[in-house]
Amino acid sequence: MQTASRTATSTKKTSTLKKSGKPKSRSSQLLNHLIKGRTISGTQALRTFGIYRLSAVIHGFRKKGMKIETKMITRKGRTYGVYKFIEEKAK
Description:
Number of domains: 1
Structural class: alpha+beta
Number of helices: 4
Strand content: 15-25%
Helix content: 25-40%
């Protein structure tokens, strides 16, 4: 019965196939999510994309020159970061 409850639960996921038919990497799915203007927390990244170390992926994006804002949130005595992609304005 435990298996049945796992299969009954579904999460909303976007298509993970590239035009070439190969699956997209987890980090590229996350980047696409952020570029669309959405935010992400560690828990959301784990549930949606299977990313355990979100801060490491964000660090990699920043090293490539992407601007990502971190907002620290404290709820019920716990503090966590929420990340958001910052679009560069055209000059």
